[in-house]
Amino acid sequence: MHSHLHTPYNINCEEIMTALDECHARGFIHKALGNCNDIKRDVNRCLAGERYERAKRNRNDAREKRKRIEKIWADERAAATGVSAADSTTTTVATATAGGEKQ
């Protein structure tokens, strides 16, 4: 059985998880004979889908945060060298393309 199934992260799977709990409540023999296996697979599928969506959101948030941080770094570099941020970005891309290295 999954630990902590009924959490806010899994709210979309609540109905299926409740059905699994009810199936398990019918008794050990009912569960041992595999009568709950289809519901269990549905729960696993639902939880995996929720986990995938959560990971995708986290990845996208991390990418956005990284873009903001890199912009701040570029602005700081530009301020230190006296070049505007747009020129600095263009120079960095041109250098990376010409030199074959990513800066």
From TrEMBL:
Keywords: Chaperone, Disulfide bond, Membrane, Mitochondrion, Mitochondrion inner membrane. It is found in: Mitochondrion inner membrane. Signal peptide: none annotated. The keyword Chaperone applies. The keyword Membrane applies. Its main location: mitochondrion. Residues 83-103 are annotated as: Disordered. Required for mitochondrial cytochrome c oxidase (COX) assembly and respiration. Belongs to the CMC family. This is COX assembly mitochondrial protein. It comes from Aspergillus keveii.
